[in-house]
Structures are given as structure tokens and as C-alpha cells.
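Appendix B. Chain record.
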Amino acid sequence: MAGQQFQYDDSGNTFFYFLTSFVGLIVIPATYYLWPKDQNAEQLRLKSLRRVHGRCLWYHLRLMKSQQSIVPTLKKVALLFGWAVFLFLAYKVSKLDREYQEYNPYEVLNLHAGANIAEIKKQYRVLSLKFHPDKGGDEAMFMRIAKAYSALTNEESRLNWELYGNPDGPRATSFGIALPAWIVDQKNSMVVLLVYGLAFMVILPVVVGTWWYRSIRYSGDQILINTTQLFMHFMYKTPNMNMKRLTMVLTAAFEFDPRSNKEATIRPTDNIEVPQLIRELGNINVKKKEPPFCYPYSLKARVLVLSHLARMEVSEDIEEDQQFVVRKSPALLQEMVNVGCQLTMMANSRGGFHAPRLVSIENCMKLTQMTVQGLQESKSPLLQLPHFEEEHLRYCISKKYKVRSLQDLVSLKESDRRSMLRFLGEEKYDEVMAVLSSFPNINMDTKLQVLDDEDSNNITAGSIVTVTVTLTRRTMAEVFEKEQDLLLCGGEDAPLEEGADASKSKTKVWQNKNKAAKKTAKSKKKKLTKKKAVSQQQQKADKQKQANGNVAGNETAPAAAAAAAAAAATPAKEEDEDASDKGSDSDEGEANKDSPSERDEESDKQSDTEVDEMGGDDEEEWKALQQSIQRRERALLETKSKITHPVYSLYYPEEKQEWWWLYIADRKEQTLVSMPYHVCTLKDTEEVELKFPAPSKTGNYQYSVILRSDSYMGLDQIKPLKLEVHEAKQMLDNHPQWDIPETEEEEEDQEDSDGIEESEDEDEDND
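C-alpha cells predicted for this chain:
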């Protein structure tokens, strides 16, 4: 590369440009991602949650952290310092003189562009007398003036200036390096090499190695891979895992081992505190010698979890350790659910493989609820509410009230509820009702179909069944108020009669909505059947009146009216049967009276309407299929936030969001039909598609669609799902209409062969 020169920045001006860009690339993204949230906004959010969540442990911890933490202040100081350096460098760059400017001889001679030769010579004489070295002038300036004079008067120099921008002609290419010259100075070489080696040979490899070592130890859900392998071993070893065994497996996770996790600690006081808690808890399988259940870290974690479920008070020395163990448990239990699903899929695909029982996976879900609420499995869900103690439950489960669940408590009358909770003062009662009103109530609608099939409602053996579950979340207060409004208004279709007892017509808030809907549909059907029977009898009477004259008509009308009155007085079931029988008889009589041509016209109209209905059904199925495809595409493109609703938990040390598990199971066979779907984005409404292969044998199957909370006890739902599996259609092997010749010659040969066959058939017929 001859003619090239590399120059270092002796003045350091270009180095400031480089340094300003480098600092800006760090400060601007860091400010966007690391600037702490507005503390006032967090304080306002906590203030809005105080009425409901004010007694929760996580609320107090979050409030103290927001008030006492200095980390946001340190972040702000560091970012502001970075911005100060960036602005200083930008100011420094703005004050630098431009060193690289275009060479203009007119500017050197202080002449305007286009000056003639006489003006150039005159100005040159004036400046040369002023800057000539013999006259005591500046030699460098005199050389520039002479060069400019030559560029404007000499033809060759003028041509070089116009072509190359320089009177001397083309110059060698020069490359500048935006580093000050002192960096490459021989005196500073040892310091520069030391800094370079420290940055790129020590700090960078250590940072990358630490990140890599940490990343390969953890799974995508930030669970240690050794913990996942441990869960898989014990779930395969014990397919039917009870709650006690499950707690032992959970607390054996390597997250609680100080050798695998630096956050876990072993304190000197554990030798005193842990044995004392063991004596209070009773039998927790301390003498079990099976590793890793017998290790100290596992035993300590087990004691802390069980004491949390029993709501026992622990000393301040191990309270922090208990909060750490409890905070980690829901994520570990979710990993156990995932491991159980993986083992189930392996068993279904390979065969001869023992899959975990359904009870094992459901126990993981139940233990998550228990951990979040700090309750044992046998305890009442009412203890999730504030100010409720064990001795208060006797008022609720008495024969007068029989309140055993949260739903029973909400469905009570206000007077009965206040009388039952008389042990609470007005303030405490209002707080209990505020908390109870914030609890979720999920409405679950299911739709069973086979997508991408001609008949989506026909389930054949081995087909992929899709159950679309629509979850609608409302609070208990909204449901209760709506039910009360409907009861007070009497509904839109059936107003209450005067003098009727309104209290008897009220149904419980938590009554199954499907049953209520069926009752309403039945009542409407009865009314329509009744009206239809009366109208049919009236039509029959009118026809008889026209046929037999006025006298006969007058005699028949009272009979029809009496028959209608008798039909109205009969019970509901007899009414439906009689009305249907009378309707069929009257239809047959009218059909016999009609002429054959009229019957043909009616049959033609009926067939046309059937065709229209079939076409409408096909269009509806096509629209439903298109909507399902669009929903799946939107689900792939959209990324919803996992922040739903904060969970009310008195003893959980961290703010927990309200999530759910949704799956289909065969409770008779204790097996999973579809894998549990973790619904983490249910804020108002969520639509979930659960897919599973239909059984290979035809028949009727009874499954269950199960919705379980990972935060609350007593709010799980189980909805029956009936599956009628038909025999799959057999595919025909030969399709003559699809045998299309590929070339024209084959087509001609085929036509000739067809013609020969036809002629042979004709000859046989003639013979």
C-alpha cells in the first residue's frame, strides 16, 4: 500500500469525537433500561392496594423496601454522572476548531472569488511586503501567500487546484487514527500493554466464563438442571406421590443447598432452632436415611416449609431463611408439574413406561396453593381471610349457617352473615368483606370440536380433538351484585307475580349457571309448547267452523276453549306430552285434508329450507374455522403481560400474581388427557385451546375439564366433558375419476381403449 500514511492525533481532537460516541452508546441505552421507576408511582400503587392487601406480609416488605432502599438512588447517581461526562465531551467537541478545510487561494489572499490578474498581483505585493521574512514577517504565512499567488497566476498550478484541490497536484492518501499520540509513545508502552492485558485477557474472560457457567447450570425457567433431574428421578420412582412425600422431594432441591446456591445459608443457630421446630411439628420423617432427604440442608428446608404451612412463629434468625425457601417453592413446584407432564408424554409415546399418576401432579398444584396461603391441606379455606382463627370456624359450620367455603359465605344474606360474624367488629367485618369481594370467580365455557375437518362436530377415532375453553374473570363482588340485581328485578323473561314470596325464588349466588340456564330454557319451552297447542286447537276449530257452518262452529269453539283450559291446568310433564300429541294429531289431520299437490309444494319448500340450513351450517363452520386460525395467529404474534391481579396472601413474602392451571383429565383412570396449560395472562378474558387425540376405540367417554388456581384454596372448578367417539371413515383405495393422463399420447390411447371396449360391448349385445 504505497503512498499511504498513518497519522496519530497529536492534539487529541479526533479522540474526543471517538470518546463522545463511545460514552453515548453506553449512557443512552443504560438510562432507558436501568433508570429506576418513579418511587411516587410505586407509593401510589401500594396506597391503592392498602385497603385490601394491607395485612399481607409481602405488602409490608414491599412498602419497607420502597421506603428504605438506596439502590434506586445509587442508580440515578451513576446514570447522572454518565450523562455529565457525555455532555462535557459533547461541549468539548463543539469548541474544537475545524482543522481540515478546503484549500481556497482567494481566502488566503483576502480576495473575492473572480478577481482579475491585476488585483491578484496588487494584493500579493501588499501581503508579501507585510509577511516577508526579510522584513520580519511570518515565514509560514509568506509561503502560503506565495503558494496562493502561484495557484492563481500559473496555469499548471491553477489546473491542479481545480482538479485536485491542491496547487501541487494529487497527494498521498492519509489515514488518521482517533487516538492521542501518547498512547503509542514508547515511554508509555508498558502501561498501555498492562491495561490492555487486564481488560481483554483477565476481566473479559472471567465475565464471559461466569455467565456461561451459570447459564449451563440453569434451565430456561431459572431452575437448576440438577434439581430437574432430581425431580424426574423421584417422580418416576414414586408415580403415586402423597403430600408428605412430595414435600420431602420439594425441599431436597439443590436451590436450598449452599454448595449449589449462594443465596442459601447454613447458620450456627440452626443446631438450636431446627430441632426445636422439629419437636413442635411432630413426625416429619427425620430418621429417614434416604439421600438427599437426610442431608442437613434438606431437613432444614423441610422444617421451614412445614412450619410455614402450620403458621408457626419462628425466630428472627431463621425467618429470612424461611422466606427464601417459601419464595422459591412455587417455581420449583411448577417445574415438578412440567416434569410430570414430560414423563406422561414419554409413557404415552414409548409404552411400558410408568407415568406419574394424576394425583401426584394435582398434589403439586395443591401444595402451591398451600404454600402461597400458608395453610395445611386439611384446613378450611375460610382461614385465607383476615381475622379468621380456628376457634371462629365453629360459628360458620353450625347447623344454622353451614358455611364451609368462600362461596357459601358470599351467598349468605347480609343479616345472616353479619350475625354469624358477630365476633368481628365493624372495622374488621368491613375489611373481611373487602378482601372477600376481591377474590376471583371464573366463568368457564367449553366448546368441543375437530378443527380442519369437514364435520367439526363429528369426533372419530384417532382424530385430534380441540377443546376451546373461554375463561372470564370477575370478582365475587361483581357476581354477587349481578345476581342480587337479577333477583330483585325478577329477570327480564319471568317477572315475579304479586304476592309471591321473593325469598323463596332467590337462588344461591354459586348455583351452577348451566342448571339455571336449563331451567329457564325448559320454562320457555313449556310456554311455547302450551301456546302452540292452544293455537293448533284454535286453527282446528276454525276449520271445523268453516266446514260445518256457524252453528257447528259455535258448538266447537267452547270445546276448544275448554280443552285449552284443561291443558293449562295439567302438570308440566303431562302438559308437554299432551301438547305434543295434540300437535302431531292436528298436523296429521291437516295433512290428510290437504291435496296431493299442496303436499308436494310443502315438501319442496321444506327440502329447500333444509338445503338452506345445511348451507348456513357449512358457512358457520367455515367462519368458525377461520376465526380459530386467526386466534392462533394472534396468539403467536401477541405477547401478553404476565401481570394480572395481585394475590391476597397473608404469609407469602413476595407479591404473587394470580395464575391458573387448565387441563383435561380422566379422573376414573387417574390419567392426564391433555397437558396442563399454565394460564398466566388472565386479566379479564382468556381463550385457551386444549388439544388431545381421541381414543382409538369407539364409544362414550367421560372426561373432566379442570381449572386450578396456583394461589387460592377452594376456588378450583371441575366441569364434565362428554366425548362420543365414532368410527373413522374408510378411505377408498381406487379413485378412477382421479386417474388423469399426464400427456396427450396417453389421453389418446385411453380414448382408443375406451372406444374398443364400447364396440365390444355393443357386439355382445347384438349377439
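Further analysis of this model is presented in Appendix C.
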